[in-house]
Amino acid sequence: MRDITREELTQLRQSFDRCDTNSDGWIGHSEFDALLKALDHDLSDEECLLAFEATDEDGDGLISFEEFMEWWTE
Prior knowledge:
Elements: H1 6-19, H2 29-39, H3 45-55, H4 65-73
Helix pairs in contact: 1-4, 2-3
């Protein structure tokens, strides 16, 4: 992951919080799916699932803020 500024970190946190629609501190599959489809309407469910699995580095079925930062800044 590249170095990010304090401002970028704040923006990333705000983006994460908007995706975390149930405010539990994690992004679940359906929340991530909604984000991806908002960014690219042509993504299939399979493509979204693959992206979720790749982003969920520890395989716990949820995306942490750290995993989200890694994905967003790649």
